[in-house]
């Protein structure tokens, strides 16, 4: 691999890292731990992530398939009401996005470990 190709590859990885939404990833990871088909109540999710209900609802709306300002969301989560409880569920698209982001993080960690190992 040439120096230019390595630099381009590193830049592409940095660009992917910059595109990771930390709260969205945390939500996807938490919801991914729930056995299917169960969801997680919003209060429990908020407590596990240290976030308030309004922050969670705003983020979950952005992650759902809801259309906001004429733009449909990615459909990574689904929010539903079960009697008095609101539950959040991860979708197949959400699982795939979580896996993509985790792969990017693993790639960045491996690159960092390699750089540390090569350092004088």
Outline of the structure:
The chain has helices at 3-18, 22-32, 42-49, 53-63, 92-118, and strands at 40-41, 67-68, 71-72, 77-82, 85-90.
Q: Can you lay out the helices and strands and say which pair or pack?
A:
Layout: H1 3-18, H2 22-32, E1 40-41, H3 42-49, H4 53-63, E2 67-68, E3 71-72, E4 77-82, E5 85-90, H5 92-118
Antiparallel strand pairs: 1-5, 2-3, 4-5
Helix pairs in contact: 1-5, 2-5
Index terms:
single chain, 120 residues, alpha+beta, Arc Repressor Mutant, subunit A, 3-stranded antiparallel sheet, two-stranded antiparallel ribbon, 5 helices, 5 strands
Order of helices and strands: HHEHHEEEEH
Q: What percent strand? A: 15-25%
What separation lies between the terminal Cα atoms? 22 Å
| Strand adjacency order, main sheet | 1-5-4
Radius of gyration: 18 Å
Largest sheet: 3 strands, antiparallel
Reading off the top of the CATH hierarchy, the class is best stated as Mainly Alpha
Instruction: Please work out how many helical segments DSSP would assign.
Output: 5
Considering DSSP H and I runs of 4 or more, what fraction of the residues is helical? 55-70%
- Mean of pLDDT: 89
Q: Given the helix and strand composition, which structural class is it? A: alpha+beta
Query: Poorly predicted ranges (pLDDT <50, ≥5 residues)?
Result: none
Protein name: DNA-binding transcriptional regulator, MarR family
